[in-house]
Amino acid sequence: MELPENEVHVWSFNVNNSHKNIEFYTDCLSTEEISKANRFKFERDRIVSILSRCALRKLSSMYLGRSADAIDFKYGTYGKPDLNFTTALKFNVSHSGKMIVLAFAKNSEIGVDVEKIKTDFDVLDLAENFFSKDEIRQLQMTQKDDLFEAFYRCWTRKESFIKAKGSGLSFPLASFAVSLDKEKPRLYKTEWNPLEREEWKLFSFEPNKGYVGALSVGSEIQKVLYRNWDLEP
Questions:
Q1: What's the predicted TM-score (pTM) here?
Q2: Which domain covers residue 70, as residue numbers?
Q3: What angle do CA 14, 19, 22 make, to 5 degrees?
C-alpha cells in the first residue's frame, strides 16, 4: 500500500464490529503481546489491546510489504512505540470507548488521539488543572452548546502533540497552547521554543458520532486521508 511522504493515513474502526472472532486476531500477535493483553482486569480492555495491536501489525505489513508476524517493535524512553528496524514508516495508535484509531506517515514524527465525548463533568474546573491560560480563556469565550466539544478538541490536540513529541509528560500540559476552534486547529505556542509552532501541523477529525480525534505531525505534510477499516477475517 502506497504512502507518499507528504501524506498521513488515518484509519479508524469500531471494536464492536470485530470482537466476535477474537481468536483470529490473537493469532497474529507475539507471545509478549498476548501476555500483556491477558493482564488487563476487564475483558473489554483485553479485547481492545488485541484488536489495536493486530490492526497495527496488519496495516504496517501492508505499508512495508512484509508479513505481519515478522514485524517487531521497540519503545522510547517514555514508552512511545516504534518499529524495531530501519524504515521511514512512523505510526501512532489511540483508542477510546468503541473506537480505535491508527495514523501512519513517512519520515515524520506523528501523534494521534481519540476521545469519546462525555458531558458529566465541569469543563472549566477540569481545564484549570490541565490547560494553559490561553486555552482556558478560549473556553471561557466558547458558547455553552459547544463547550464540551471545544474541551475535547483542545484535549485531543494536546494529547496528540505530546504523543508526537514522544516525551510523555516530561513537560507540563500548561506549557504549550493549541487552538480550540473547529476549523483551524494549530499549535499556538510552546514555552520552551517560540519557533516550534511552525514545525507542526494539527488536524481534528470525527471518527464516529460522539467522538473527537486529533493528529499532530511534521509541517511538511500536505494531505491527510481518513479511512474506515473492517478487521473481519
A1: 0.94
A2: 7-107+221-228
A3: 135
